[in-house]
Predict the 3D structure of the following.
Amino acid sequence: MAVATQKKATKKEKAPKVIYYTYSGVDKKGNKVKGELAADTPAIAKAQLRKQGIIPQKVAKKAQPLLGGGKKPIKPADIAIISRQLATMMKAGVPLVQSFDIIGKGHENPSVQDLILSVKQDIESGSSMAESLRKYPKYFDDLFCDLVNAGEQSGALENMLDRIATYKEKTEALKSKIKKALFYPISVVVVAFVVTTILLIFVVPQFEEIFSDFGAELPAFTQMVIGISEWMQEYWYIMIGLIIASIFALKELNSRSEAFRNGKDKMVLKLPVIGDILNKAAVARFARTLSTTFAAGVPLVEALDSAAGASGNYVYRTGLLKIKDDVTTGMQMNISMTNSQLFPNMVNQMVAIGEESGSIDGMLTKIADIYEQEVDDAVDGLSSLLEPLIMAVLGVLVGGLIIAMYLPIFQLGAVV
C-alpha cells in the first residue's frame, strides 16, 4: 500500500503559489509603462520584463486589495456560503463567470460584492479561477486555491466546488461548536466578577455605615469583606488597568511569540472537559481536511501537509508533519499514526482498513462525521453542565457576601 501511495504522490505536483507584482519601467521606444505580472520572486519578475523588452525601474509586491473600506467585514462563514452557491450554480450548468456575477450582485454584504466581482473581472481578463482567488489570501487560503486548481486541471470544477463547499461548511460548523464550548466557562467568570464587583462597591458600603454605629467588634469574615470593599472603592482603576494590561499582554504574546502559542496549545488540550472537546475537534478537522484533499487527487504526502496546517493546534501540527515524513520514507500512514500516540485506536484502525481497501478518503470522511458528532454531543453536555454551575458559583459569591453582611446583625440579636 505504501508503494502505491508513493506512486500516486508522483503523479501530480502541487501548484506553486502565485505572487503578483506591480511594475513601472521603460519599453524599447522609451515610453513609460506600468502594469502587473505574476512571478515567484522579484528577480524572476524583472527577468520576465526584460524578455518583453521592458527595462524595469520599480518592481514591488502587489498589496492585497482592500475590499469594502469601512463596510461590513467578510467572515469565513460568507466564504462557505459563496462556495456552496458556486457549487450549486455550476452543477446546474450556469457558466462560471455568470455564477460569480449572480452571486456578487445578489449578496447583501457590499464587501462580499466587491470581492466576488473583483474575482469575476480577473477571470474575464483571462486568469484562471485559482489564480484570481490567490490574490485574496485573507479570504481564500492555499488549501482552497489548490483544490480549485485541481478541479480546473481535471476538468471537474463543479464537483470540486461541491467538495470545497462541504468542507467549508463542516469546518465552520466545527469552529462554531468550539467557540460555544469556550464561551460558557468564560461567561461564568465574567458574570461572577461583574456581580461581585457591583456588590463590593455599591452594596457593602451601605452596610458598613450601619455597622459603624454598633460599637462592637465585627466578625472576622465581615471585616475581611469590608476590607476588600474599601480596597475596591479606592483602587478600582488599578484592578481594571491590570485586567486590560493582562489581556493586551496575552494578545501580544500570542501574536509575537511562537513559544507562547505552542505552550498554550499544549495546555488547552490538557484542560478538563474542554481539552477532550478540543482533541476531538482536532481529529475531526484532520480527517475532514485529509479526506477532502486526498479525494481531490492531491497526493497523500501533500494532503498530510495541508491537514497539518489546518489542524489548528501545535501538538497535532507537529505530529502530522512527523507522520508526513514517515509516509514519505515508505511507512504506512496507520503505523505512523499509531506510533505518534496522538489518535484514538479506533481512528488508527479505520485508517488501516481504508489503506488496505484502497478507500482511505471514504474512511476518513466517516471518521470526520463520527468526531464532529462527538464534539456536538460534548458541547451540548457541557452546556447542560455549566448552566447549573453558573447558578452555583453566583449563589456562593452572592450568598457569601450576604452572610458576611448579616452576620453582625445576627450576633447583635443574640446578645439582645
Q: What stands out?
A: Strands lie at 19-26, 32-39, 55-61. The longest helix spans residues 360-415.
